């Protein structure tokens, strides 16, 4: 009897781990890229389309409505039909509607409609990526491995959008952003060929045909045991519970579910409110065009660096919630300082610190959530957390745009973002996760002190 979860948890990170991480990271690259590309569209279309700031915020929020539906729907599909099939479907939806946005979006409402449809595919990529890599991650390096996988891909995607925004849109128009996004078609073909199904999901469903070969590539030192014809591959988790929102809100999971959803709502409000408006706001504060657009990339680069350090500290100490709270409080202070001063070098420092803390902590919240639920409900749990979080992401660009319209200047906008970070720090401390997939192969709760 071979416990698939324990075999994965005890393996050392090797070349096959990195192949899986690279493919998932590239998929999430397009999520990060497309998430922030509308921020660079705003600069080009506000005057031609005669948009008020609150309407311009809807350019970003329209896609995030699709993200919310995609995040919620993928959990049900990935927990029922598998991680790989859902990932491929999401990639093709994102590819098709990214191309359509570049070709057919000639007005405000057409752009918003196509962005909504594109967002349904894109919204599924991040929760699937988080779930997928969590189920391939060795126990000792959960945060580090997943951060170098999906989190690096997501951060590089947003940096890629910044580079295209700075270097290609002046010559080719904002449509260049979506022609580049449609290159995800190449990745969809590569994932179809090379990406394996999640072994924990396959074992839970009794789909054992490909498990020995994949486990041998993940853990070569145990290849002989996997090849034994008498070997039976099992996942000692209950299979009789259907993943659902009702289950996630049952007594077993309720406290953690409410806490991570609230934390995601507030932090994504802050992240998307900041990233969506930072280029336009910085231009009005006196920064150059290139520098203002580069601030968006700076937020994401520093977010990745912040997630590495936060994840490392969480792994070493086991105090995930504590470090998440510290990170978000630090981000709130940095953004509040940005509201009070306007000097070139201080702008760089405070934007970098805000990116280091708020997106950096959000990355670890995704890992924290995936590690807090059993395999049978993990996809639904991560999807629910990010789906509710997308409500905050939808409101962020719209409300911060509205605040600029009602209160001229950027102080009110930055103040709202800082408050959201502080509320997220408070919310995450309520969680009491069940860490069955990280701590051991038995159904044991996290220590109550954590």
Quick description:
This protein has 450 residues and is mostly helical. It contains 20 helices and two strands.
| Main sheet strand line-up | 1-2
Give me the count of strands.
2
Distance between the termini: 32 Å
Tell me the radius of gyration.
21 Å
Look at the helices and sheets and give the structural class.
mainly alpha
Question: In which range does the helix fraction lie?
Answer: over 70%
Number of helices: 20
CATH arch. level architecture = Up-down Bundle
Main sheet summary:
2 strands, parallel
Mean pLDDT: 84
How many separate domains? Answer: 1
Name of the level-1 CATH class? Mainly Alpha
Strand content: under 5%
The gross shape turns out to be globular
- CATH fold name: Growth Hormone, Chain: A
H-E order = EHHHHHHHHHHHHEHHHHHHHH
What does the model show?
- The chain has 450 residues and is an all-alpha fold.
- 77% of the residues lie in helices and 1% in strands.
- It contains 20 helices and 2 strands.
- It has helices at residues 4-10, 15-45, 53-81, 83-104, 108-134, 142-167, 169-172, 176-181, 184-194, 199-204, 211-218, 223-227, 245-248, 254-284, 289-317, 320-340, 344-370, 375-406, 411-428, 436-439; strands at 2-3, 233-234.
- Helix 6 (142-167) runs antiparallel to helix 15 (289-317).
- The protein is globular, with a radius of gyration of 21 Å.
- Mean pLDDT is 84; it is low at 436-450.
């Amino acid at each position: 009897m071979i416990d698939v979860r324990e075999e994965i948890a005890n393996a050392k990170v090797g070349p096959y781990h990195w192949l899986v991480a690279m493919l998932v990271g590239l998929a999430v690259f397009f999520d990060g890229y497309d998430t922030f590309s509308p921020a660079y569209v705003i600069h080009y279309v506000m005057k031609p389309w005669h948009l008020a700031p609150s309407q311009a915020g809807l350019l970003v929020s329209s896609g995030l409505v699709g993200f919310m539906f995609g995040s919620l729907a993928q959990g049900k599909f990935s927990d029922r039909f598998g991680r790989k099939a859902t990932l491929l479907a999401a990639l093709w939806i994102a590819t098709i509607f990214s191309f359509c946005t570049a070709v057919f979006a000639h007005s405000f409402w057409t752009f918003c409609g196509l962005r909504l449809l594109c967002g349904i595919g894109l919204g599924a990529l991040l929760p699937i990526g988080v779930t997928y890599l969590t189920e391939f991650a060795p126990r000792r390096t959960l945060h580090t491995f997943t951060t170098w996988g999906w989190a690096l891909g997501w951060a590089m995607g947003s940096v890629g959008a910044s580079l295209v925004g700075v270097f290609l849109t002046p010559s080719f128009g904002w449509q260049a952003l979506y022609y580049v996004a449609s290159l995800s078609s190449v990745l969809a073909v590569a994932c179809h060929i090379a990406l394996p199904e999640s072994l924990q999901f396959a074992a839970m469903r009794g789909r054992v045909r490909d498990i020995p070969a994949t486990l041998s590539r993940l853990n070569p030192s145990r290849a002989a045991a996997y090849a034994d014809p008498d070997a039976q591959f099992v996942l000692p988790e209950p299979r009789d519970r259907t993943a659902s929102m009702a289950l996630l809100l049952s007594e077993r999971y309720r406290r953690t579910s409410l806490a991570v959803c609230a934390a995601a709502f507030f932090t994504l409000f802050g992240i998307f409110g900041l990233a969506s408006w930072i280029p336009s706001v910085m231009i009005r504060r006196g920064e150059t065009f290139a520098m203002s657009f580069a601030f968006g990339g700076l937020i994401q680069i520093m977010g990745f660096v912040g997630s590495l350090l936060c994840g490392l500290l969480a792994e070493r100490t086991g105090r995930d919630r504590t470090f998440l709270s510290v990170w978000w409080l630090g981000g709130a202070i940095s953004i509040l300082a940005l509201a009070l001063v306007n000097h070139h070098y201080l702008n760089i420092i405070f934007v970098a610190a805000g990116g280091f803390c708020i997106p950096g902590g959000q990355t670890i919240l995704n890992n924290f959530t995936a590690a807090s639920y059993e395999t049978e409900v993990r996809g639904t749990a991560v999807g629910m957390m990010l789906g509710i979080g997308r409500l905050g992401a939808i409101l962020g660009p719209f409300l911060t745009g509205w605040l600029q319209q009602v209160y001229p200047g950027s102080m009110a906008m930055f103040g709202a973002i800082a408050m959201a970070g502080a509320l997220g720090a408070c919310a995450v401390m309520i969680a009491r996760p069940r860490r069955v997939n990280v701590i051991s192969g038995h159904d044991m709760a996290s220590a109550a002190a954590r």
